[in-house]
Amino acid sequence: MADREHNKRILLELLKRPGNANCADCGAPDPDWASYKLGVFICLNCSGIHRNLTEISRVKSIRLDFWDDDLVEFMKANGNAVAKERYEKNVPAFFYRPQATDCAVLREQWIRAKYERQEFSGNNEDPRDMNCSGCHEGFLWKRGKDNREFLKRKFILSGMDFTLMYYTKQVSKGPKAVISIKDLNATFQPEKIKHPHGLQITYLKEDHTRSIFVYHEGTQEIVSWFNAIRAARFSYLKTAFPTASDSELVPLITRNYLKEGYMEKTGPMQREPFKKRWFILDSQDRKLLYFKDPLEAVEKGSVFIGNKEHGYKVTNVLPKGVRGSRWKCGITVETPERQFIFTCENEREQREWMEALNQVISKPMSPQDYTMEANVRRRR
User: How confident is residue 126, by pLDDT bands cut at 50, 70 and 90?
Assistant: First the structure.
């Protein structure tokens, strides 16, 4: 008869081994669950995904469930480090590895790709095309710029000429838009798009940031699109920066935005009426973008956020005489040219915006940042 408390203590000790202190799938600290068929320690959220993989994974709580001796021995013989060597042997550099804060569709498809389809183990005799070439085509539901309805559109991604094209009519009539991969970003936005598979694709056109919002009903297909875009971006970056290492390029492929949300803003004279706008802080491009609403296709303007050593500063104090905003929690962004005045709905939002802006201001500027700064100034 297995000793419940004894086996629980063994499992808790196993969590102290290298690799076991974080979830095997999303990296969340202090995993409380384990798959006793795969031999991995996982977090609560990922355990819910494993429950749907009944043919290959079975889960138990480390602290609450009863563990037989043979299952404990299996966990001792395996663990996260062993599983990583087995299931993540050949993960392409561009392939996105989800974090604990990422949306469910990314985490689910990462788990299915590793354990169910075994795409990275090297054991698959007929491996699925992982879009290593950065080429992909198919249909996505795209939100219209004017009518705001989601309509089915044909998309073609080419890793050869670094473009993403989409069509509103037959392919023979030519694309509606040809988007360069050079400045493209893709990030999952299920809450904003109000679809669990919602993807926001942004790019530069005439120095303005434009967005298209798409989704696909299939979880595997939308994540395949995302990783195909990442493959194309990675290929472009290797061409643009031939001496850079993979570890330097991977963080530049795509990124989530540092902070998004509503603030109110006034104009350069600080006497104009405050207007409610949706803001996005892009830490990689060092830009604070603002839009009329979260799903607006084209930015209304942007503020470059430079380095503190070059005269950029953010404070939670509004200049004297500024009035007219419904919201009273103020933020002043000082640049070498002018002050930008914003207000937040509450102190929590104010604090989060301050922390995010200061995070960007504290970063050194790269040569590319100086070019971006000049482009933003030229637009004014």
Answer: very low
Asked whether the beta carbons of 195 and 95 are under 8 A apart, the reply is no
3-state SS, one letter per residue, for the chain = CCCHHHHHHHHHHHCCCCCCCECCCCCCECCCEEECCCCEEECHHHHHHHCCCCCCCCEEECCCCCCCHHHHHHHHHCCHHHHHHHHCCCCCCCCCCCCCCCCHHHHHHHHHHHHHCCCCCCCCCCCCCCCCCCCEEEEEEEECCCCCCEEEEEEEEECCCCEEEEECCCHHHCCCEEEECCCCEEEECHHHHCCCCCEEEEEEECCEEEEEEEECCCHHHHHHHHHHHHHHHHHHHHHHCCCCCHHHHHHHCCCCCCEEEEEEECCCCCCCCCEEEEEEEECCCCEEEEECCCCCCECCEEEECCCHHHCCEEECCCCCCCCCCCCCEEEEEECCCCEEEEEECCHHHHHHHHHHHHHHHCCCCCHHHHHHHHHHHHHC
Q: pLDDT per residue over 64-83, tens digit each?
A: 999 999 999 999 999 999 99
CA dist 268 and 326 (Å) reads: 19
From the list 361, 350, 212, the residue with the least C-alpha distance to 286 is: 361
- Distance separating alpha carbons of residues 152 and 167, to the nearest angstrom: 10
Q: 263, 353 in Cβ contact below 8 A?
A: yes
Does residue 96 contact residue 226 with C-beta atoms inside 8 Å? yes
**Contact between 181 and 232 (Cβ < 8 Å):** yes
DSSP lists the bridge partners of residue 40 as 35
- Check: pTM over 0.90? Answer yes or no: yes
234 token code pair: 């990675």
pLDDT tens figures, 18-59: 999 999 999 999 999 999 999 999 999 999 999 999 999 999
Q: What is the distance between the alpha carbons of residues 11 and 35, in angstroms, rounded to a whole number?
A: 12
149 CB burial (10 A radius; 0-12, 13-18, 19+): exposed
323-327 LR contacts (CB < 8 Å, sep 24+): 324/266, 324/273, 324/274, 325/264, 325/266, 325/274, 326/264, 326/274, 327/263, 327/264, 327/274
Gyration radius from the chain CA atoms: 24
